[in-house]
Amino acid sequence: MPIRRLPDELISRIAAGEVIERPAAAVKELVENALDAGARRIDVTLAGGGQRSLIVSDDGHGMSRSELLLAVERHATSKLPEDDLVHIRSLGFRGEALPSIGAVSRLRLQSRARGAAEAWALVVDAGTVGSPAPAAQPGGTRVEVHDLFYPVPARLKFLKNARTESGHAADAIKRLAMAHPAVAFSLVDDERTVLTLPTTLGDVAEQRLERLGRVLGRDFADNALRVDAERPGVRLSGFIGLPTLNRAGAQWQYLFVNGRPVRDRLLLGAVRGAYQDLLARDRHPMVALFLDIEPADVDVNVHPTKAEVRFRDGALVRGLIVSALRHTLAEAGHRASTTVGIATVEAVRPAFFHPGGNAGGSQPRLADAMRFQAPSGMSAGPQAGYDAPASRPEAATPVNGSSYPLGGNYPVDVPDPQG
Ligand SMILES: Nc1ncnc2c1ncn2[C@@H]1O[C@H](COP(=O)(O)OP(=O)(O)O)[C@@H](O)[C@H]1O
Ligand SMILES: [Mg+2]
To answer: The whole model's pTM is what?
Structure first.
């Protein structure tokens, strides 16, 4: 067979296969675009799990007629003004999302550039771009995606039922919303409002905690400790749950790098390492951690949906997380030990462990857990239960990998003892 150049339409469909795996991926890309456009309010509407239609409207800076036409071209982006892949500050930069979505759906964009007198609409149907027509749009951008994957029926077969697909879309919105508490979000699914996140007020930590409480539940907000730590060129902030607020899976660990939600094994491993003496091995903490790092020190261009990143100095990042979390937990343990009576200690203690789980290995950890909540007289100091446990037989054994609903199986590395 002769080598030939593929037609553009086919190239876009192939690219769409990587970037747009399911409706939630389209939602993620469109919400990211709205955030990059400086939106203060983003409203998402789904029908049929987002496959029949998904609509994302924002009040961002909008696009002019000519920008609309460029936006649906492959590799056209406004986000790399200096051809600089090293200092990326936006969520997008590849110029792939809109052409990819347009290749596998009926895409309709409607936008009014800030300060412009008129708004324009543009339709792309299975890769065929129409011509811009005048539209009625007060400001910002409205993107409608209808009949997602209709040109690629094979992909349709892999979709789950509408409820499941909507759930994934909601999850994608929640993750982005956690990192952008000043932006209001809503999600309407088959005419039912399932998510309303008003804009938050106060300083960054207050805004974050309020948003996290709404997304992750009051329980998290009431049982979370604030983390704030810095090393040259990198800052870690956010909230981590008390060990008592543990879960059976690691999917309640929300990690962000420069405002971008990631499922990164280095970061997940560091969180596990920080809690390892406080939780049974089948229990996982809830955390929402935000890493702000010099864009030049992290490569976000290593994964098709940017779910993983690569750090220039992974050991520095890992060390920062482990030490900041251990320190925060130890301080809280110390505070609890000086303010909480023994009755309370007894009341919380069993919550450290999953009933029936890890029976054999639970003894030394139970001791550690007690030290966490024990009155100060019983403890050698705030660090005692963390950095220098009296006995920790499992410490040198790698913990079994566990299954993450969003990212396959991550092997968990041996915790770094120096932390
Ligand atoms: N909601 C929006 N508001 C304003 N401009 C947008 C919006 N969505 C897309 N654009 C413009 O279209 C371009 C292409 O978008 P996209 O295909 O997602 O690629 P990328 O986000 O990587 O640049 C963006 O660079 C931006 O200029
Ligand atoms: Mg984009």
So the answer is: 0.81
